[in-house]
Amino acid sequence: MPNEFMEEYQPLLIKETKATKGSKYVQNFINQTWRERYQTDISGGALTLLWSTIVSMFTLGGFIGVTIGGTLSVKLGRKGTLLANNIFAITAALLMGLSYPTGVFELLIIGRLLIGINAGIAICVQPLYLGEIAPTAFRGAMGMGTSIFITGGILTGQVIGLKEILGKEEYWPILLSTTCIPAFLQLLILPWFPESPRYLLIDKGDSEGSLKQLHGIAHCDSEQEDIEKEKNNLVGVQAKKPWELLADRSVRWQLLTIIFLNATQQLNGINAIYFYADYVFKQAGIPHDKIPYATVGTGACECITALTCGMLIESLGRKVLITGGYTLMSICCILFTLTLSFQNSSPAVPYLSMACVFAFILSFGLGPGGITNILNTELFTQTTRPAAYMIAGSVNWFSFFFIGLVFPFIVIGLQQYCFLVFLAISSLAAIYIALVVPETKNKTFLEIHNDFQSSNNRKTCSTDGAGTKLLSTSI
What we know:
By secondary structure, the chain is mostly helical. The protein has 21 helices and no strands.
């Protein structure tokens, strides 16, 4: 890799003076406010600390959100929690929008914390709700809705952040305030939707009215039968707390699977690819002022792939897509390391690097980006699912924070060879899924649970040497 990469991007990695346009606008506002308050410019160290605090508050809020999301989904219901969660988004938008006219940059810190809590609760409860209201045959396609709208939201943010729309310095408070738009839309639309029938029937013992509303009178019988079977297996069992789930040996392989997959989803190199994208686009000859448009292309790429995955998931299955995705990402890690190492050897190499960027994003969206959330839903039954989402979400957000913390040191130390680390992680994920995770397509939650139970029992029989077959137990 050319030395100019490290010379240009090392300040960004160690969070000193290099920043994107959006962050420069906010830092200018902080400096201006500081000058008005104390009649002096803020020091570089204090500015870095405040900016880092504003950035990290989102991660902290997300972690808080997932730790309470599962509990709220049991207390308020899935739909009730999603509706109540909009309070955080609207309050955050109000605070961040008022920060500039009031000259109080502390409102940005509080707003980022609240919007993080909103995101944490939503990513925990929304796929839970979709997975429980979906018919078994369409559960995967509906579950992909989470990934599709996340990538769609990222793409929308990239587009409205262009200088032709809200990307100018005077518009950044408005840009931050747009987080209230999805909240208002949800408050208008979601009340017309029914509560999760599994939550009503299993957790609350309510009637099946919502099931008829979702599936129609003619098609609700099979879903009703499936829910009744699960309910009968859960008689007398209360919703588990996360620490109770961690101590439950009957779901240890399901738990290990979602912990591993949620950690891998953040540690597989996708954040590194986005970091290197600007450098690769620049090396390919794209003018500096046109790079934001190329970045929009990466967002569009991931969004289109999520849509494609949603169309393929019920025909190919979860296991093929997520294993294939990690396998392709492993190959891309090798190719990207080679192209970065020989960036100046030929005029064609930067274009190969750019192809690797898009191929990696396509591979991520094809499986790991969306199917991980679906497996969080499918590998557990009603009483363990909220706690499982709290654990999986906590691991996901902690991994997101961890990679943000250590990635600068990895890049500075290993440079382009950092992708060999991500190669190892992606390859390990592909092997683990191929050996441990069963296919869940067209299976009920109880059937998936029993698949894991049978696998656990075979392992137990093999370990203790007994020739008898152990009976699987349903919880």
